Amino acid sequence: MEDDVTIELWVDLGCPWCYLGKHRLEAAIAQRPDADRFRVWLRSYELDPNASPEAEPVLDHLSHKYGAGPQQVQAMEARVRALAVADGLPYSTNRVTANTFDVHRLQHHAAAEGLGTAFFGAVQDGYFAGTLNPFDPGQLVTAAVAAGLDEAGVRAVLAGDAYADAVRADEAEARAFGATGVPFTVYGRRYATAGAQSIEGYREVLAQTVTAVEAGSAAS
User: Fold this and answer.
1) The pLDDT value given to residue 2
2) By C-alpha distance, which of 166, 173, 171, 211 is closest to 191?
């Protein structure tokens, strides 16, 4: 019987490289004949924990963050959009951005209900497709319920501070591993990669991880 392999993937909702990396990792896993042995565990990391809870257009945010003009930030977004399109993913530049802490807390709630991957995937995909504003509480609740979560439970999480410690613990562990950004991926606690890899890059690390896991099992 094959041992399961846990892949820990630290992500932030509004990070385009997390969007690309998550889909590429999933594609790399799906291409393997033993895909069912892999368990992807989504973990929290805020790229900007001090971000305002008030949403602003992404292009304005990038302009303020990098001190760049409209043409420069549009070119930055266009480059990422081209990569997304090449991967068959929708990518709208008509998005807003804000503090993601509540989304991370709700992600932990979804994971506790066995719906973490479904919830985060639906919210992030909708966000980058331009069909969902996850910083609007009403839209976030609707998306969570559509992913299978109980509405009352979702509203209770958002109204309080549930899972705040879990988010902070994820971030602390990422830093302990040496992460300074996301996506950051740990494979079976044996290997790690920083940044979005190509599908082939993920396939190579998955193969190395399986070899290490099986060698460890044989030795025990």
Assistant:
1) 79
2) 211
Q: Give the 3-state secondary structure of residue 5.
A: strand
Contacts of 135-138 with CB under 8 Å at 24 or more apart are 135/53, 135/55, 135/96, 135/97, 135/98, 135/99, 136/55
Classify domain 5-218 at the CATH superfamily level. Answer: Glutaredoxin (3.40.30.10)
Task: In whole angstroms, give the CA distance from residue 63 to residue 81.
Answer: 17
SS3 state of residue 213: helix
**Helix and strand numbers, DSSP H then E, in the chain:** 9, 6
For residue 94, how many other CB atoms are within 10 A of its CB? 8
Place of tokens 């902070």: 168
Q: CB-hemisphere CA count at 13 Å for 161? A: 3
Q: What are phi and psi of 193, to 5 degrees?
A: -130, 145
For 10-39, the pLDDT digits (tens) are 999 999 999 999 999 999 999 999 999 999
pTM over 0.90: yes
Alpha carbon distances (Å) from 211 to 8, 16, 131:
18, 31, 41
Q: What is the pLDDT of residues 165-187, one digit of tens each?
A: 999 999 999 999 999 999 999 99
